[in-house]
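Milestone M4 deliverable, item 7.
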Amino acid sequence: MKDEEKDQRVRPGWPRVALGALSGALAGFASLAVAELVAAAVRPQSSPVIAVGGASIDATPAAVKDWAIRHFGTDDKLVLQLGILAVLAVLALALGGLAVRFRRAGAAGVLLFGGIGAAAAVSRPDSTSLADALPSVVGAVAGALLLYVLVGRLTMVKTPTSASGAVTEEAGDGPSASAGWDRREFVLAAAFAAAASAAVGAVGRSLNASRGQGAIASRDKLVLPSPQSPSQPIPKRAGLRIPGISPFVTPNSDFYRVDTALVVPKVDATTWRLRIHGKGVRRPTTYSFDDLLHRELIERDITLTCVSNEVGGPYVGNARWIGVRLADLLAECGVKPPSRGGPADQLVSRSVDAMTIGSPVEDLMDGRDAMLALGMNGEPLPFEHGFPVRMVVPGLYGFVSACKWIEDIELTTFDSYDPYWVKRGWARRAPIKTASRIDTPKPFARPTDGTVMLAGVAWAQHRGIDKVEVRIDDGPWQEADLAAEDTRDTWRQWSFPWRATKGGHTLAVRATDRTGVVQTDKRTRTIPDGASGWHSVVVAVE
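Output delivered:
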């Protein structure tokens, strides 16, 4: 009888399952690459990894976020994205293995994850269009088709029927199965898919980067005018020349960054606008960047502190800021603080990525140098720190004051609106607590006996530091030498010459602010309104 040929699905063996898993990984790679390209046409924040990452940040409990910041620092966003990619890789491998046996189910799984990415993208607070779903949808379709095609190379073989018409079912890893499908054809298809995906992804990343060129150009062209109210020169003795101590002015490149933005917004200063409106605003107004540049500019040295800063932590920095008095803008719009009969007690600032931060109106208009900052340490704000405009308020933790990339100010009340962090368990009001830190010697240092210089910084913004004391082991508190004070809104350096004796020692520090409040020894977590307690280090003197 004449032999006939017939397509038959082969029972998969481990080699085919492994190649199916590889197909899944390639399909996942293709999905992300195509999504990156489509996101370049929509907006970078619509990329599925960014959208899912943002949704994950929003859904993460405050304690977990605090743990991530404590352990990963400013790399927490990179760790999150790598974690998302790792999970996607595992799922892609699993879907590829599944597709060897259930081809359509594997492809459907890719589409399902595309749907999750699309839902995350359109549900983001800064999403303004259903077009944000396109990168995830188009990427998922491309990945599903690729997986279907690649797995098809593995599962469909032609086997001759016997004279009786029975079809021989071949083992997935047997010799006859090896002859039933073309390894070379699969390898070529997989290699082409990998190369094409890499090229598409590279083009997408390049296009996404180019979207910020207008913003970069607007910053490069910006020359900040001289402030009409310049800061006083920093006293010569404000910065101590002691190895290991933090510099009095923190360089922009070293200034801490704690926020939820997985993609740093790049806003063109020429198109930027700020709207002030809401309860008690008699004259709602929209300002351009040029409007702010042509107002009276002030220059002030102000130390900022993040509420996520643990006792002795690094999330505090001092810089010279140039900007516009926020109280003047509010008064121009007819806003009055509650103490003068104003109906609004909360100012909600919104950034271009839809972050909301609530600040007490009374604090913003009590005479302190609260400002909309345009410059930092003599240059336009870096993008990472809020270009073109951000809020800076001395004396308040950043989560209730330091809105970066600001574009909207709404006057309201604490009773009627909870901003982002309040919804997640943080306090509505959060003045910075009096704190101090030992910068040198470092924990577990091994200095030699003799005179060892202890040094560090202390801060109590808007109150000022009056005294710093150190304690060796269980001995008495001894007053340290204070460096010259710049202003009450900046940190203050201190030093103490310690006659060290051999052996292990515990060094502790505490500060007293100008109101007479002594830094408490009671240890508290950063949640809900900032950590407290004495900073201490253990050293071994040799």
